[in-house]
Design goal:
- By secondary structure, the chain is of the alpha/beta class.
- It folds into two domains: 176 residues, 3-Layer(aba) Sandwich (Rossmann fold); 178 residues, Rossmann fold (3-Layer(aba) Sandwich), CATH 3.40.50.2000.
- The protein contains 13 helices and 15 strands.
- The strands form three sheets. It has a seven-stranded parallel β-sheet with strand order 3-2-1-6-7-8-9, with helices on one face.
- It is elongated and about 65 Å long.
- The two termini are 23 Å apart.
């Protein structure tokens, strides 16, 4: 079976997925660019092991897309059994879909996530142009189902798949014991009995200012670790203004190190103003962490079971955020209970299952539930 994917850049989680999928089919992936201009050098450390990766030649348009006029040369009728487009509204994606339609080659659309109803005008028209004629749409969530139908997909043509960056071997099989947790804290030099972690770029959208606001009412004995590289002056000034001695800004960590660091933590918080998914939530839950995040994060909407493996809070609602943080910080038993549920929720969300669910569709088996 021959499968062709059109993608923008070889992000690490996508390369892991392609390497897994390539074990079961003859896979070719066309990339618009070699990397994003916004990402750390770690994102460039990828290996194409089980698939053929091709970098299209073209002109960079923005951080992670390009105009590659030669894409049509790869879209010949009868060469591939399945064609999957994963990029929306980039010039290359539009050219590719136009070529596929002219040559009457069926294609699938696949996305990570998105909130319906925000795009209007030309952008909305371009998204509809790609999504509405897709043979099937691979969706990550109920929220993204609504996004796809808003741009012309039929509900019966939407297939759900477990979107993740976690390999099966990385998923904890059981919550860490209290002694194991203390050992991990010693390894990373974490002195606090309760440690909160958040991960992301130091940009307004990630909501670190909201987390710092919440820290004003937390005990200084509760550590807060924000992993995202060098903080901007805004966040350094907020820490100074609020007198938050328990807040630590951490350098960027390679993913393998971050997964280990999670084992030393007790709570994961992401007070994002908007994330079309938020893979770090998968990674935190796979490490047994209860999660607090907002209703503008699709991973949170899809994965958090309220009060069972974490708390879903309203965006910008610092009162709810403070209450959730305090409740988890105050109860080691509650954190342990939520850790068990978090791990159980992640059993389906592995790279291996992600590839397997796609292969069921490609092989003509049952649609993933």
């Amino acid at each position: 079976m021959k499968v062709l994917y059109l993608s923008n850049i070889p992000s690490p989680y996508r390369v892991d997925y392609f390497n897994e999928l390539g074990k079961f089919c003859e896979l070719t992936v066309l990339f618009e660019a070699e990397s994003s201009t916004e990402r750390d050098e770690e994102w460039k450390k990828y290996r194409f092991e089980n698939f053929k990766g091709i970098f299209l030649k073209g002109k960079r348009i923005n951080t992670d897309t390009a105009f590659c006029p030669g894409v049509g040369a790869y879209l010949k009728r009868g060469v591939y059994d399945f064609v999957v487009v994963t990029v929306l509204a980039s010039p290359t994606a539009l050219l590719a879909v136009n070529t596929l339609k002219r040559r009457r080659i069926p294609y699938f659309y696949e996305g990570d996530g998105g909130f319906a109803g925000k795009t209007t005008g030309l952008k909305a028209m371009l998204k509809r142009y790609i999504i509405s004629d897709a043979r099937k749409c691979f969706s990550t969530s109920g929220e993204f189902d609504r996004y796809c139908t808003a741009y012309g997909a039929k509900q019966e043509n939407i297939l759900r798949y477990p979107f993740t960056s976690v390999r099966k071997e990385e998923l904890l099989t059981a919550p860490l014991t209290r002694e194991q947790k203390r050992e991990w804290k010693r390894e990373f030099g974490i002195e606090e009995n309760c440690a909160i972690v958040s991960v992301g770029q130091f940009i307004h959208r990630k909501g670190f200012d909201l987390l710092l606001e919440c820290c004003r009412e937390l005990s200084e004995r509760i550590g807060v670790y924000i992993v995202g590289g060098k903080p901007t002056e805004e966040y350094l000034a907020l820490r100074e203004r609020y007198g938050l001695k328990q807040v630590h800004f951490m350098e960027f960590m390679p993913r393998a190190q971050l997964m280990r660091f999670f084992c030393a933590m007790d709570i994961f918080a992401l007070f994002t103003r908007e994330d079309i998914w938020g893979l770090v939530i998968n990674e935190a839950m796979a490490s047994g962490l209860p999660v607090i995040s907002t209703d503008r994060c699709i991973a949170a909407l899809e994965l958090i079971r309220q009060g069972e493996n974490g708390f879903l809070v309203e965006t910008e609602n610092t009162a709810q955020m403070k209450k959730a943080l305090q409740r988890l910080a105050d109860s080691e038993e509650l954190r342990e209970q939520m850790s068990q549920v978090a791990i159980q929720c992640m059993e389906r969300y592995t790279i291996e299952n992600m590839a397997a669910e796609h292969m069921k569709v490609f092989e003509g088996g049952r649609d993933p539930s």
